[in-house]
Specification:
- It contains 15 helices and no strands.
- The longest helix has 25 residues, at about 175-200.
- The protein is about 70% helix and about 0% strand.
Length: about 350
């Protein structure tokens, strides 16, 4: 019989894994609450969301560069980027998919009622499991699948309010196909990014890979803005002025932290556990929403919390182990990009950064 301590160490074999897990949840919870706080009574925003998204992506890019340079040097950064340029092309895949996801959600929400939309989006948990098996060639056990299905049901129940079942609008049409594309793009981008971090990029610093991803992401968003005729207006004074408020700046800063933490999450944990973290966010968000916004906790939320905890308990008995491919730190002496003729400084043993000591 496994004790709770045994289950804990199966989920988080190292202390930093637990820290990353908790920080990931905390950042997403505060992001959701802050975004809600910036909404007007009609649920719209005073600021241009495209402006905020691009500013956040730019902040992620600059933060990744600063973190790498602080841990190493600017010269090391230039050399590693040059030697790992091939990864730049690979990261176009998740960049395009994330861009597609962010824009499809507006189309989906304009067609589906909120209940139908959020119920459909909960199938990301199961889709993540299927894609994880396909990309990493690892079969999930029956118990793991049972926990994922319970997790999906728990998330779905939380989104359903009284009399909502009769309101579900799931007619098969082009918009249902679009929302399925949205689910696939989100899940595939996450699992594929994990694949890059743990295989092709296992000897490349996480921050360098972040730079590639955010450069690609900024490019994709600029292309989309150009297509929509907004490329010369998204940074106008009219769009920037509402951004210069404490809450909106906090959203940008928090989103930047999320980007950095997600890269560590996928490097040291995995996409399946990320689904559980997202589900547990529902639990804590419901409690905090009640405390700060007076949102009542309904019977469906209580059932949802129970199902999520049961799913987490079952999963913790035999969690997915996907750390072997990327468990070792980037090493310039063992299969890394270093060679003495390129830059001897990159061949030295790298000091463990503060982010690796947690």
């Amino acid at each position: 019989m496994q004790t709770l301590r045994d289950r804990y160490f199966k989920l988080f074999p190292k202390k930093r894994c637990a820290v990353i897990f908790v920080v990931y949840m905390a950042l997403f919870i505060t992001q959701g609450l802050t975004v809600t706080a910036t909404q007007k009574p009609d649920h719209k925003y005073e600021y241009n969301t495209a402006t905020v998204v691009l500013l956040a992506e730019t902040a992620k890019l600059l933060t990744s560069i600063v973190i790498y340079v602080c841990q190493n040097s600017w010269q090391d950064f230039k050399v590693e980027v040059k030697q790992r340029t091939s990864l730049f092309g690979y990261y176009f895949v998740p960049a395009v998919l994330y861009c597609l996801y962010n824009n499809l959600q507006f189309t989906s929400l304009s067609w589906f009622d909120p209940t139908s939309y959020f119920v459909l989006m909960q199938f990301r948990v199961v889709v993540t499991g299927v894609l994880f098996q396909f990309i990493f060639k690892k079969q999930l056990t029956r118990m793991q699948w049972l926990s994922l299905i319970l997790l999906t049901i728990g998330c779905t129940v939380q989104r359903l309010q009284e009399n909502d079942i009769g309101k579900l609008s799931l007619n098969v049409n082009i918009y249902l196909i679009l929302i399925l594309m949205q689910i696939l793009s989100s899940c595939f981008a996450g699992v594929y990014t994990e694949f890059l971090l743990k295989t092709l990029g296992r000897d490349t610093d996480v921050m360098v890979q972040n730079v590639f991803l955010y450069l690609d992401s900024i490019f994709c968003n600029l292309v989309l803005l150009t297509y929509n005729g907004q490329v010369f207006t998204f940074l106008s004074y009219q769009n920037l002025q509402p951004v210069l408020s404490f809450k909106v700046i906090y959203i940008i800063v928090n989103q930047t932290c999320i980007g950095i933490v997600v890269s560590y999450f996928l490097r040291y944990l995995n996409s399946i556990l990320k689904s559980f973290a997202s589900a547990l966010e529902i639990v804590f968000t419901a409690v905090l929403a009640m405390l700060f916004f007076g949102v009542p906790i309904g019977f469906n939320t209580i059932i949802s919390i129970c199902l999520i905890f049961v799913a987490t308990y079952l999963y913790s008995a035999n969690p997915v182990n996907n750390t072997s491919a990327g468990s070792r730190e980037p090493s310039k002496d063992n299969g890394g990009p270093c060679n003495s003729s390129a830059n001897p400084k990159l061949c030295r043993p790298r000091n463990i950064s503060s982010s690796d000591k947690v």
